[in-house]
From TrEMBL:
<dbReference type="Pfam" id="PF02913">
    <property type="entry name" value="FAD-oxidase_C"/>
</dbReference>
<dbReference type="InterPro" id="IPR036318">
    <property type="entry name" value="FAD-bd_PCMH-like_sf"/>
</dbReference>
<dbReference type="GO" id="GO:0071949">
    <property type="term" value="F:FAD binding"/>
</dbReference>
<dbReference type="GO" id="GO:1903457">
    <property type="term" value="P:lactate catabolic process"/>
</dbReference>
<keyword id="KW-0285">Flavoprotein</keyword>
<dbReference type="InterPro" id="IPR006094">
    <property type="entry name" value="Oxid_FAD_bind_N"/>
</dbReference>
<protein>
    <recommendedName>
        <fullName>D-lactate dehydrogenase (cytochrome)</fullName>
        <ecNumber>1.1.2.4</ecNumber>
    </recommendedName>
</protein>
<keyword id="KW-0560">Oxidoreductase</keyword>
<comment type="similarity">
    <text>Belongs to the FAD-binding oxidoreductase/transferase type 4 family.</text>
</comment>
<dbReference type="GO" id="GO:0005739">
    <property type="term" value="C:mitochondrion"/>
</dbReference>
<dbReference type="InterPro" id="IPR016171">
    <property type="entry name" value="Vanillyl_alc_oxidase_C-sub2"/>
</dbReference>
<keyword id="KW-0274">FAD</keyword>
<dbReference type="InterPro" id="IPR016169">
    <property type="entry name" value="FAD-bd_PCMH_sub2"/>
</dbReference>
<dbReference type="InterPro" id="IPR016164">
    <property type="entry name" value="FAD-linked_Oxase-like_C"/>
</dbReference>
<dbReference type="GO" id="GO:0008720">
    <property type="term" value="F:D-lactate dehydrogenase (NAD+) activity"/>
</dbReference>
<feature type="domain" description="FAD-binding PCMH-type">
    <location>
        <begin position="118"/>
        <end position="305"/>
    </location>
</feature>
<dbReference type="GO" id="GO:0004458">
    <property type="term" value="F:D-lactate dehydrogenase (cytochrome) activity"/>
</dbReference>
Length: 568
């Protein structure tokens, strides 16, 4: 009604404007009506103009934003950064602000990325937060001065997630926020700060026999590595060993406390396992790689550790038979704790290693964990797994009889990273590098993916070893290369990524996009999905200060080439 009256007033003004032009004197009431209409109309025009200015940057009346529609992004200058730091010293402990060269270097690269940061890619400051309130104060100020801010947790990511891509950047380190806040044994969940590691949480749980579960311990199911921070696991939606049973992080997180780019603190949900209250903000932050907000606390689901466990090792002549067995496990309703596969090349590395006491045939090998509430359940599971494996013509079926043998049999998988590194140094020399890939495909496409991906590697004259979370169809085909072969290896990895997309898969099962795979993401999801993500990003972070240039482009005139080439 208000807007209609404004429109009518403006029409009336226009209608009677000629009276002034011809010096026809309007009535007093008419003049008041015209004056009021002009006032209201001007107000509406100003309101509309300001709204348009605010809106044109982000939406342009559309649901998506193409990168070509964005202006060149301008961040705070070196002078603005120094003003921000001086202001920040009054809000957090000044001792948590550092420019120490060793600290700067350790926050610029973790040694696990194929590309090393240039000098210009190193942060100017590292800021340590000790609470959600610290994170909020830091982001309020960085938002005010438009300072690029890169979140840093455990530093174990593999896709250049914490490379600084813009000048005058800071790194916000949350690793000191490492308190376990609450363990709810009845509800089977735990609330933790973002710097708690997978290992820390599970070691704490292992020391607490829970009366509600009859004396069994609890565990956090997603096994992404000992030193992985919970917040980093959320940021990349990681999974790891046991993915086919526990899923990825998004299935294991109940609630998140996050700080947005302007310092606003939000909590996504309460603590029940089931809720339909509002948008799924918990899912939105999972896999966002620190580009939408910084996770500071979360509540995660816990699982009861079954009292009886065992490990099975099964070998096959080829990958097709191994995949066939895994498919039948699922089709017959068997829920195993872990289904991992090492290919023939990786088994060569295992036999070479001093970390494994057994010698295996050089064949595709499944390493599986099974557990149950009693021996009868586990014995039946072993019997069923063996029957299916024999139907698929396995060459070896072995299961552990005690705890010591369990540990020994699974050592080849548990120590796979260190085994492949030792093998590479011995085979190719101390200068050899290892590129870890992360594709995932539907299980029915797995044999074709592995066959064709290995052909791509072989045709390039490179060597690879494969470790797979086969139950989830996630493959780490890890490629050895010399420094001078970097460009060759880069092309191989890109071709493998394109192959995974062709086979209805993804370029990343758990490591995320970061900088490394940003250029390939539109091939998998399509430009409209990327443009929608860009709109979400800029709605939540209008200055694009949070981990800029990761996942999607935020600038049509990027001042660096965000690819694997390293020419930033």
């Amino acid at each position: 009604m208000f807007i209609n009256n404004i429109i009518k007033s403006k029409i009336y003004c226009l209608k009677h404007a000629r009276s002034y032009a011809t010096k026809t004197k309007p009535s007093s009431s008419t003049f008041k009506y015209i004056a009021g209409g002009v006032f209201l109309g001007a107000g509406a025009t100003l309101l509309y103009t300001n709204f348009s200015k605010e809106s044109s940057f982000s939406t342009s009346n559309k649901s998506t934003i193409k990168v070509s529609e964005l202006p060149k992004r301008v961040y705070g200058s070196e002078k603005m950064l120094e003003k921000a730091i001086e202001e920040l010293k009054t809000k957090i402990n000044p001792n948590n602000i550092t420019q120490h060269p060793d600290t700067i270097l350790s926050h610029a690269d973790n040694g696990c990325n194929p590309i090393k940061p240039l000098e210009s890619q190193k942060p100017q400051y590292v800021l340590y937060a000790e609470s959600t309130e610290d994170v909020s104060e830091i982001l309020k100020i960085m938002h005010k001065y438009k300072i690029p801010t890169i979140p840093y947790g455990g530093g174990t990511s593999l896709e250049q997630h914490f490379f600084t891509t813009r000048e005058n950047s800071v790194v916000l380190d949350t690793s000191r926020m490492n308190k376990i806040l609450q363990i709810n044994e009845v509800d089977l969940d735990a609330s933790v700060q973002c710097g708690v590691t997978w290992n820390q949480l599970n070691e704490t749980l292992a020391e607490l026999p829970i009366s509600a579960t009859g004396g069994s311990c609890l565990m956090f199911g997603c096994d992404c590595g000992l030193n992985a921070n919970i917040s980093g696991m959320i940021a990349t939606n990681a999974s790891g060993i046991g993915a086919q049973k526990h899923g990825s992080m998004v299935q294991n997180v109940i609630s998140i406390t996050a700080v947005l780019a302007d310092g606003t603190i939000v909590k996504t949900k309460q603590r029940p396992r089931k809720s339909s209250a509002g948008y799924n903000l918990t899912g939105l932050f999972s896999g966002s790689e620190g580009t939408l907000g910084i996770v500071t606390e979360c509540t995660v689901k816990l699982t009861v550790v079954n009292p009886i466990e065992t490990v099975c090792v099964v070998q096959f002549d080829d990958l097709y038979k191994a995949v066939g067995a895994v498919s039948k496990f699922a089709q017959r309703g068997l829920v195993l704790d872990a289904i991992e596969m090492l290919d023939s090349n990786m088994m060569k590395a295992v036999n070479f290693s001093s970390q494994v006491n057994q010698t295996f045939e050089i064949k595709p090998t499944l390493f599986m964990k099974l557990s149950g509430i009693n021996n009868l359940v586990v014995d039946e599971m072993v019997k069923e797994v063996k029957q299916i494996s024999e139907e698929q013509e396995c060459n070896l079926f072995k299961f552990a009889k005690d705890k010591a043998e369990e540990k020994e049999l699974f050592a080849a998988r548990k120590n796979a990273l260190w085994i492949m590194l030792d093998y590479g140094y011995d085979l190719f020399g101390d200068d050899v590098k290892l590129w870890i890939t992360d594709a995932a495909v539907p299980l029915s496409k797995a044999p074709e993916y592995l066959k064709r991906a290995n052909e791509i590697v072989d045709n390039a004259g490179l060597t690879s070893v494969t470790v797979a979370h086969l139950g989830a169809g996630n493959f780490h085909i890890d490629i050895y290369y010399q420094p001078e072969q970097l460009a060759v290896c880069e092309k191989v990895v890109k071709d493998m990524c394109k192959l995974s997309i062709e086979l209805e898969g993804t370029i990343t099962g758990e490591h995320g996009i970061g900088l490394g795979k940003k250029e390939l993401l539109p091939l998998e999801l399509g430009e409209p999905a990327i443009d929608l993500m860009r709109n979400i990003k800029l709605s939540m972070d209008p200055h694009a200060i949070l981990n800029p240039d990761k996942v999607i482009k935020i600038d049509n005139e990027e001042n660096f080439n965000g690819t694997w080439s390293g020419k930033y």
